[in-house]
Specification:
It is built from eleven helices and twelve strands. The protein is an alpha+beta fold. It has a single domain, classed as Beta-lactamase.
Length: about 375
């Protein structure tokens, strides 16, 4: 099973890579239709063990849940328990880049790799920071590298330094001219974080603390270097028909995703991040020739998807929200909110059920429930 899980994890990484007054008891008072959808998802054949949904509408906040966060204890999901946020971490990367660009430190969205980190990715010297954040650089995804895959299959718990991640594709040519089209690549965010480190003279972990976690009081958030999860945490499960769910929460070292997807956070912390993240990125996007272009997050978010600077625009039937999705073995997330960040949805599933992974009907039902949660947030 472990080998199958490792291979599935590689495949999905390729496809990828608040409020103290909230009480679990509020779930029963939540929107009836959405609660029924969540209950139906966890009870469906092949459904995840648990789901949590935090809906913030400014003065009113609701926390809904279905199923369990831990199959061994039967504990239900909580608003302050830790989860792997996967590619939602790319939003943090963009937030730091824009914060540095708007501050007194020398970093610009137009800065090229050759000016900032020369010779790290020789084929991408003319690529700009903005192109990295919008996935229009043309850089190949290091997760597709045969060398990366071989090492991952041999030891998924191994630590990989950021310099090792770029080394996997250092000799590879660009897949297309920079800026010419959209292609989701985890290499983009590794390079962007290296540029941020160079401009600030600080480690990326230090930047997360000084620019995000500290100012926003996100005490449950971190960028770990080992497989260990902070306690308490929502356990993530690998599901295989006819077999007992396998707890994979502490199987894979998130350092292999680093600035592209390695952060651990909580629904409550993510709800604190949204009001700062969305206005900051949207303000910086006004200076771009093409702030958003057709392109889906991975997994896709609700409605029609458009790609921006470490952010996606989701046009749903109830209105437009902005944010990011994430997928990691054991987890699927959506973090989205209104343009000003005053209304938001933090949607966590503790199994990696996404298009191409797991029952298609369940994956589709999760996306419909996410769209319904967006409607609740905007209504």
């Amino acid at each position: 099973m472990l080998l199958r899980l490792r291979r599935n994890a590689v495949a999905m990484l390729v496809a990828v890579c608040v409020c103290c007054g909230v009480m679990a008891g509020q779930a029963a008072a939540g929107p009836p239709k959405l609660q029924r959808m969540l209950d139906g998802i966890v009870s469906a054949p092949g459904g995840p063990p648990g789901i949590s949904v935090l809906i913030d509408r400014g003065p009113r906040t609701k926390f809904l849940h279905a199923g369990v966060a831990d199959l061994s204890s039967g504990r239900v999901p909580q608003v302050n328990e830790h989860v792997r946020i996967a590619s939602v971490a790319k939003g943090f990367n963009a937030f730091i880049a824009v914060s540095l660009a708007e501050g007194p430190r020398s970093l610009s969205l137009d800065e090229t790799l050759s000016a900032s980190i020369p010779r790290v990715l020789p084929s991408a010297e003319s690529v700009t920071l903005a192109q990295l954040l919008q996935h229009t650089s043309g850089l190949p995804d290091y997760i597709r590298s045969p060398t990366f895959i071989k090492g991952f299959l041999a030891n998924p718990a191994a630590y990989l330094a950021p310099s090792q991640l770029t080394e996997f594709v250092r000799a590879d040519p660009l897949e297309f001219p920079p800026g010419s089209r959209y292609h989701y690549s985890d290499t983009d965010n590794i390079a962007a974080a290296l540029m941020e480190e160079m401009a600030s003279g600080r480690s990326y972990e230090g930047l997360l603390q000084s620019e995000v976690f500290g100012p926003l009081s996100m005490r449950g958030s971190s960028l770990p270097r080992t497989v260990a999860m902070p306690r308490p945490f929502m356990h993530g499960y690998d599901l295989e028909p006819g077999k007992k769910p396998d707890d994979v929460s502490e199987l894979i070292n998130p350092a292999g995703a680093w600035a592209s997807g390695g952060i651990v956070s909580t629904p409550a912390d993510l709800s604190r991040f949204v009001p700062a993240y969305l206005p900051t990125i949207l303000r910086a996007s006004r200076g771009l020739t093409t702030p958003f272009r057709p392109g889906s997050s991975s997994p896709p978010g609700p409605g029609k998807n458009f790609a921006g600077l470490g952010i996606f625009r989701y046009r749903s039937g109830c209105g437009t929200v902005y944010g990011h999705t994430g997928s990691f073995p054991g987890y699927r997330l959506l973090v989205a909110g209104s343009a000003g960040g005053g209304r938001s949805v933090i949607f966590v599933v503790n199994s990696q059920i996404v298009p191409g992974q797991g029952p298609p009907r369940v994956a589709a039902a999760i996306r419909r429930a996410q769209a319904r949660a967006v409607c609740q947030a905007l209504s």
